[in-house]
């Protein structure tokens, strides 16, 4: 799967990009028709500790799934986003297989 990582208002390090790539690749276990993923990492300028936002858009044939999570760390936000997407992909797979 092609994963694009976009860092908004900061520079992203290689370790974080590798983590995102690895986590998104795991989603293919649940639904193998995923075309690509766009991951937007943003830092909100607030006094709140949970100012890291991960917005993940997954492209599958005929649909797009978008999940947005806000946490203390990017890793946690990406992990929560991936878990939500995992549930969505499993539901979609079940829905499609029930129509066949």
TrEMBL record:
InterPro entries recorded: RHF-like, RHF/RaiA
Q: What is this protein called?
A: Ribosome-associated translation inhibitor RaiA
Which species is this record about? Flavobacterium ranwuense
């Amino acid at each position: 799967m092609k994963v694009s990582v976009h860092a908004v208002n900061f520079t992203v390090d290689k370790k974080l990009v590798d983590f995102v790539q690895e986590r998104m690749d795991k989603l293919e276990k649940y639904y193998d028709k995923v075309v690509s993923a766009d991951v937007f990492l943003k830092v909100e300028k607030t006094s709140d500790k949970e100012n890291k936002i991960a917005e993940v858009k997954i492209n599958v044939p005929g649909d797009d799934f978008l999940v947005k999570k806000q946490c203390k760390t990017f890793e946690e936000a990406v992990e929560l986003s991936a878990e939500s997407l995992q549930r969505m992909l499993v539901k979609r797979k079940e829905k499609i297989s029930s129509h066949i």
